[in-house]
Amino acid sequence: MNARHIQVLPLICWTLCVQPLSAQGLGNAQPNPAPQPAVQGAAVPRIGQSHTDPESGETPNPQILGMEIPLLDPASDTVSYNGAKFDVGNNALVRARFEKYLQQNPDDSTEAKRYRKKLRSLLKLTQKSARSSREVGSETLLKIGNGLYEMNDYPGDGGVSGSLASAIASAISVQYANRSRSRKNEALQKEIDKLVEKTNMMNNRNTGRGSSSNVIVGKADGGGASNARTNTFAIAHNTKKIATLEATGVKNDADSIAAMELAKINFQSTIVSMLMQRRYDHALIGAHVYRHVFNDGDTTLKLNSESQAAQLFEGGVGLPPTVNTMATIAANMRHEVDQNMEAVANMLAQNKLSDATQSLIQAVAVGEYMQSVATFPVEGRRRIAEFWSLRRRALTTLNARDYGALEEIASKMKALDPDFDDSMLTSYCAGRKAQSDLHLRNAAKALKAGDDATFNEEITKAGTIWPKNPNLEKGRQQLEKLDNQDPVRDEFRTLMARKEYRTIYNEQDKFEVVAVDPELKQQYKDAITLIGTIDGMLAQLEIAAKQDTTMGPCMAYEMLLEHGEKDERYKEDSRYRDALNRFALGAHEFTKALENAKACEERREYGSALSNYYRAQCLYPRSTMAGEGARRVTEIILKAQF
Amino acid sequence: MLGGGGGVLLLAVVAALVMKPSESREDSPDSRFSVADYRQDASRLTGNSYRLKARVENIESIGNDRLVAVSLPGNPQERLPLLVRSGSAGRVNLTRGDTFLFHVVCRNGKDEQGLDVKGVMVVEKVETE
To answer: Is A317 strand, coil or helix?
Structure first.
């Protein structure tokens, strides 16, 4: 048996132990149920039916005893079973048993100790007898059987000791019955011998040969013909009786052989079932006792050569499976589990919780009933339970695609176990988060472009990849804005018609959605830009006016006036108008001179107009309006005729 | 000794003498002139002549005609525009920053399109101080 089988078999055993033993059909290969037609055309794997995934082209799992065998993939810690793959760390059954184990206290009760001591002594006894070339007497077998019956009382035994003891007792009973039949056959043979001798004598008399030919069978007085006829009948009767006795003897032999074969099968079934229940000690005891119970030297497992079980046992080295093979497997398993538990203790000492958890779950799955597993200290169980709990949460959050929480859990696991390799997990999370954010960015672009369909599609993708993406909330808000877009658009148009640019500016977040409309987009941008420019300019002018209280207001007034003249929209802004009035008040003389100049110019009183422009220039020498007015009027006067 | 008609005539002559500044003393500037008043309504002063002592602040010119901005003594924040036609300054060289005695008349004129150009102080004579 190669290493791979040694590695895989415990899991096989463990999984199969939860299957009804009656389905195992050991030694009596039960016919596989006939394949039934697939329901609704689905390729449903059937019991005893090889399964192949037509799409993936995966090779079917080997089958045993009408059920497919779980195969462990050490690279991914998954087990293939009935066409599905299970993480051994996530399989519900394994998980439930493992968690139950972690929560249990070490089995250190007096009863448990006594039980294990008894088991060890029986194992030692059977090992000793197995090494002995002498045939084990019935007393030793009786001692083993009684010991097993005693152990059967311990609740943790699960009845396996009693089962093995019964198998031994049954086998011995069959042997007793066979011996009885042998004795009967011996008696029959003696009787046959006598009848043969007697018949020969009668036959000789009839023919008159030999020493006895002178002896007349029957009466002496003149009845020769009648006596001869009587001998003939007696000979026929004896011959018939001999045949009957021989047939009885043959039947007895056949019964003995059949009973022996059946007893072997039953005994082997018991050993195999114990192996599969991971009761390696009992399997070893059974295997060791076997050759003394059945001392004909035949230890071959009575498996149907066509059965998957026989192929499995042969699979390792191509030899027929024997009881010794099972003993080897059981011994190897005990050794492996003990080594695993030793490794767990060492890894815990080094804080390698991840590796320790993996090793412990394998040890529990393979050797749950072994002493090294059952007595594992509570402190170690607590530490592994803590790490295991995080691992479970990691799986849950991974299934929920909550990558933020998953990263937190990974960091906690890393804190517990510095050797825990979280790079794959974190890089996977980062990748998925980036993917989700990328879709959100595309959604934002689509929103700006007014592409509702793409927006919805990208938002859906982002949410599917990472449902708890915090940026999704923003997307949701934008969706709501989209829904409310039409009323907002109407309101925007109304405000634009009323030239209430500042209202739009003050509620620019609300009106941002109108930008999806190309027609309103420029209007929205212009309104925001206009008010932004006005506010920026007013802020600068306020500072300048405070720095120079004489010319500052003049400058501010003139600048505002100029902008108002260039762009009529300025005059629609209340803040602009307020500022203009305020600065006009501060630059009263200057504004009055400019107003007078314009009024005089309109009346064509150019002398007065020019004088007013001069006055304005005196108050604010850098005045553009005053300078331009003065130049304009000067030219008119110089060109006029007086 | 004069009759009623003679009295009225005398009053009119006196009033005319009072209302005509140009007929004030030839050697002193006209102190009644106010730039502020001029800025408000120059048309009201049309036809009036003044002798103004003023400091040249700025000079603009087209050809030989010049428009001189002057400030009157005691009122440097006000500027008065004076039109100095070619030759009207005589041999006086008008330079910025110097003070002169300007003989001016407030006149109305016409521009190139024939439209009114009202209330412009036209210099008739310039004297050095």
So the answer is: coil
> Given phi > 0 = left and psi -120 to 50 = alpha, else beta, which region is A219?
beta
Contact B79 A612 (CB under 8 A): no
- Which range is least confidently modeled, A385-389, A469-473, B11-15, B67-71? B11-15
A634 contact residues in B (CB cutoff 8 A) = 60, 67, 81
Cβ neighbours of A414 (radius 10 Å): 17
Maximum pairwise Cα distance, chain B = 60
Dist CA A319 CA A317 (whole Å): 6
Question: Which domains does chain B carry?
Answer: 4-128 (2.40.50.140)
Kindly report, residue by residue over A506-515, the tens digit of the pLDDT.
998 888 878 7
- Is residue B56 helix, strand or coil? strand
Chain B contact present for A596, CB below 8 A: yes
Nearest to A637 by CA among A592, A606, A604: A606
Tokens of A330: 């059981």
User: DSSP H helical segments within A104-159, as ranges?
Assistant: 110-131, 138-151
Which of B85, B112, B118 is opposite residue A606, by nearest beta carbon? B118
Q: Please answer whether residues B83 and B69 qualify as being in contact, where contact means their C-beta atoms are separated by less than 8 angstroms.
A: no
Beta-bridged to residue A85, according to DSSP, are A80
Q: How far apart are CA A423 and CA A402, in angstroms?
A: 17
Cα A296 vs. chain centroid, distance in angstroms? 49
Token pair listed for A514: 């109108």
Mean pLDDT, all residues of chain A: 78
pLDDT digits (tens, 9 = 90+) for A409-418: 988 988 888 8
Question: How many whole angstroms separate alpha carbon A513 and alpha carbon A148?
Answer: 84
Say what the pLDDT of residue A639 is.
92
- Nearest to A326, CA basis, from A281, A287, A384: A287
CB A301 within 8 A of CB A323: yes
CB of A374 closer than 8 Å to CB of A107: yes
pLDDT at residue A570, as a whole number = 93
The C-alpha atoms of residue A336 and residue A365 are separated, in whole angstroms, by: 12
Nearest to A614 among B40, B69, B109 (CB): B69
Q: Sign of the C-alpha dihedral, residues A519, A525, A530, A535?
A: positive
Which of A600, A604, A638 lies closest to B67 in CB terms? A638
Q: What is the CA angle A571-A573-A579, rounded to 5?
A: 80
Q: Structure pTM?
A: 0.47
Contact A243/B at CB under 8 A: no
A158-167, A223-232, A581-590: which range is least confident on average? A223-232
The residues, any chain, with a CB within 8 Å of residue A162's CB and separated by 6 or more, are: A148, A149, A152
Got the DSSP string for A65-115?
Answer: TTEEPPEEETTTTEEEETTEEEETTT-HHHHHHHHHHHHSPP---HHHHHH
Mean pLDDT of the region A124-144: 73
- Is residue A51 within 8 Å of A37, Cβ to Cβ? no
Per the DSSP assignment, residues forming a β-bridge with B55 are: B71, B99
> CA nearest A206: which of A236, A192, A227?
A227
Mutation target to probe the A interface, by most A beta carbons within 10 A, among B48, B59, B118 is B118
Helix (H) or strand (E) holding A313: helix A308-315
Which pLDDT value is given to residue B110? 93
